[in-house]
Amino acid sequence: MTDTMQALVVLEPGVLEIQEQPVPEPGPNEVLARVRSTSICGTDAHLINGDYPGFWPPAFPFTPGHEWAGDIVALGPGVAELGWAVGDRVAGTSHNACGVCQKCVEGRYNLCENYGRPGLHAQYGHNHQGVDATYAVHNVKCIFRLPETVSYDLGAVIDPASIALHVARRGNIEPGDTVVVTGAGAIGMLAADGARICGAARVIVVGRGYRLDKAAALGSETVDSEAGDPVAAVRELTGGLGADVVLECAGVPQTLGWAMAMLRRGGRCAMVGIPTEDVLLACKPLVLDELELVGSRASAGEMRRVIPFVADGRMQAAELITHRFPLAEYEQALATFNDRASGAIKIIVNP
Description:
Elements: E1 4-12, E2 15-22, E3 30-39, H1 42-49, E4 67-75, E5 89-92, E6 95-96, H2 102-105, E7 122-123, E8 135-139, E9 143-145, H3 152-155, H4 158-170, E10 178-182, H5 186-197, E11 202-207, H6 209-217, E12 221-224, H7 230-237, E13 243-248, H8 253-261, E14 263-271, H9 284-288, E15 292-295, H10 302-312, E16 321-326, H11 330-338, E17 346-350
Parallel strand pairs: 10-11, 10-13, 11-12, 13-14, 14-15, 16-17
Antiparallel strand pairs: 1-2, 3-4, 3-8, 3-17, 4-5, 5-9, 6-7
Helix pairs in contact: 4-5, 4-10
């Protein structure tokens, strides 16, 4: 270890810099990890662009990044007693919740009622400094053992895989259900696998371009949103009935409208995409068809549950990694991520 490290710093929206900074020290129940791989998330791109002013992040300058894997290089007080050791390989997630509010004790720490209160809650890479750096400190609540069979690069995709499994579970998928996924990005394709893990008999992904081709290659039926009315296409594929469950993973107003219109009577839409603008919904079918719309935020316990599925390939995360860049080339990595013509799905950054 050295005394300093490289860290990505967003000075202001759209202005990035690689800085030399002191290596942080772990406090009680924290570890210091050598970050080996991080993955660029759509939230990172929005945050860097300044799309969540005053919220994610609370202020600039800021270091983003929350999907990562690495190995422990130092332990804070109390960590050894919890079974962790220097050299342990880990994958991380972002929510360091308080652990004592009602939602936390019920296991829904992603909804921590002390969210954002200094000293009680931190979300790494969102309202607290992230992991796009050579080293990072994380609370032990936010790290999970990475099997030797899983590479660091693949380990960096475990957090989004857990989010995909969470939205599938929020959909209350029953064995034999027909599930539609709107959005063929990384979360959408991982959610398709999550739906199958939860028992879906059919999974139909709605999207466009090379990402839709990838969804087909990974085993989903597909509907091209640019080839006609995707709602009519889904209705035709389901004998006019619609989907039992829709997982909305695109996060734009139009796709949420499609998602609700694709549901079978009594169907349920679980929404994980976050639109940056308000959405107008038709409420008549919501009432008369007893439809359900539920939110799905991050994950709540799915990191542990999803790791075996990533390790054995049932959650096809490895197939989504398309590009790799060193931390020094983060701006190029981000530009590639934002360029639909690049063929990018999941981009790995190696600090």
